[in-house]
Amino acid sequence: MLLLASHASALSEASSSISGASAGGAATGGVILVLLLAAIIMGLYFLPGIIASFRKHHNALPIWLVNIFLGWSFIGWVAALIWAFTAKQSPTIVHVNNAPQPSVRPTMETMTAQQANDEIATLKAMKEAGTITDAEFDEKRAKILSRVG
Q1: What is the dihedral of CA 23, 24, 30, 34, to 10 degrees?
Q2: Engineering a disulfide at 48: which of 1, 56, 76, 80 sits with its beta carbon 3.0 to 4.6 angstroms away?
Q3: 136 CB contacts (<8 Å, ≥6 apart)?
Q4: 60-70 and 74-85 helices, crossing angle to 10°
């Protein structure tokens, strides 16, 4: 009987140590669960800022600020989320063409007689309108006549 009683007390001590260990394990598991849940909630709360940063949005800092200071209200959070998904500003590309442009009429181009007559008639109209002087008219007419081929 004594042997049975000693086994019973040993069994009772073993079960109490096991239940104590599982109670401590449950507390540790509960803390881990709470921390995991808090991390998930924080990730969801800062989701607009995270998205803006990953997308390299040109307004990532203002989106973070709206998210931090107004995200507690559902409207502020939704506004920051929509803003994070808006189109990114693309850089403006300017192409510079430094190639020389062909002139409309090269200075030493040959002309037909008809073209020369048309040019001289235009010059004569400019002279009569007073746009050019007689000396300018004579100079330009001489250039035109030298180009007739």
Answers
A1: 150
A2: 80
A3: 127
A4: 170
pLDDT digits (tens, 9 = 90+) for 91-126: 777 777 666 655 545 455 677 888 888 889 998 988
| C-alpha distances out from residue 134 to 116, 123, 127, 138, Å | 18, 10, 7, 6
User: Is residue 71 helix, strand or coil?
Assistant: coil
Task: Please provide residue 111's backbone torsions phi and psi, each rounded to the nearest 5 degrees.
Answer: -125, 160
Report the phi/psi class of residue 46: left, alpha or beta, with left for phi > 0 and alpha for psi in -120 to 50: alpha
Token pair, residue 65, equals 């600020």
Q: Which residue has the tokens 């109490």?
A: 16
What is the rounded CA–CA span in Å between residue 61 and residue 29? 37
Q: From the CB of residue 123, how many other CB atoms can be counted at a distance below 10 Å?
A: 19
Backbone angles phi and psi of 61, in degrees to 5: -65, -50
d(CA 83, CA 59) in angstroms, rounded, equals 9
Query: What's the predicted TM-score (pTM) here?
Result: 0.44
